[in-house]
Prior knowledge:
By secondary structure, the protein is α+β, with helices and mostly antiparallel strands. The protein has helices spanning about 5-20, 25-35, 35-45, 55-65, 155-165, 190-195, 205-210, 215-220, 235-245, 335-345; strands at about 50-55, 70-75, 80-85, 90-95, 95-100, 105-110, 115-120, 130-135, 140-150, 165, 230, 250-255, 260-265, 270-275, 275-280, 285-290, 295-300, 310-315, 320-325, 350. The termini are far apart.
Amino acid sequence: MSVNSSLSALLERRAAILAEEPKLRARNLAEKLGISEAELVALGSAEAKVTRLRPEWQQIIAGVGALGRVMALTRNESVVHERKGVYGELEGGGHVGLIVGEDIDLRIFFMHWKFGFAQVERMEDESLRRSLQFFDGHGTAIHKIYQTEQTDIAAFDALIERFATEASPVEVTAVPAPKKARPDSEIDVAGFRAAWDALKDTHEFHGLLNKFKVERVQGLRLAGEGRAARVPAGALRAACEAANSRGVPIMVFVGNPGMIQIHTGPVENLKPMGPWFNVLDEKFNLHLREDHIDSAWVVWKPTEDGTVTSLELFDKDGVLIATLFGKRKPGVPEDEAWREIVNGLPEKEAA
């Protein structure tokens, strides 16, 4: 089959699927077509003009602050995290960057960024919606930035023009199989627990897992009493409802290999809908598949500011879906109200 005929067949299949499911999200449409989301975006359409962007990721993200208020979107297979605000100054350099602001709070791992596109899409009401979309080498979405009513449209168009480049084939690699944990018998559990108790900062936890060659869920399971405890999958909803009713601000971390996006603040408009648990606030939206939660854990980590308590959610492959903390900053002890909420979750079992 020629390239043109195979492309024509793909476009026909896309049209047929959208005729039946016009509201289908891009990620799910790509899955039905048997291609990556990056390849789907690259196809373009009569309703969407797509521009390929040069792989100058740091410069592009550094320029987003000039666009004014936008919506930042980061997701993984199980949850979508959307936050509205203005991008602050990009800090860091090379392969890792961060943006720290009241509204937009990101930890960026540029080494995983492979493809970038700007899309100008005509909506049902004939308005145009601009977005920047970034993908990894597997064609999986890392981060997206959408215009809002307060976005500077001229600045957005200028940014697209500045980084536009010629379209080229999107060649993706297969997603690797989930990494298998080492047998428990090969883990130095006593050493792992002692190193856990010696932690000074939550950011040291990833290094702890690497040092002892422990997968994250395995580490929680082996942590022992006072370090981690398993709770029911419904703990997410229970924690958010308690934070809502008590007016306790929280932090919600959602990420993928290329990005971690953080919401800090209240969660107010909670809307369960089918398998989805949603937060639908003005600045912050969360859409999480509760049926994807295979295990949930309360985790206690020592730091120089006292114990930090988190609620961590994982899928069946041990992939981290989302992490919740109480609102806090370095040098400030954890919010006691958050600690009471999490420690009060039912049916905790010592790991």
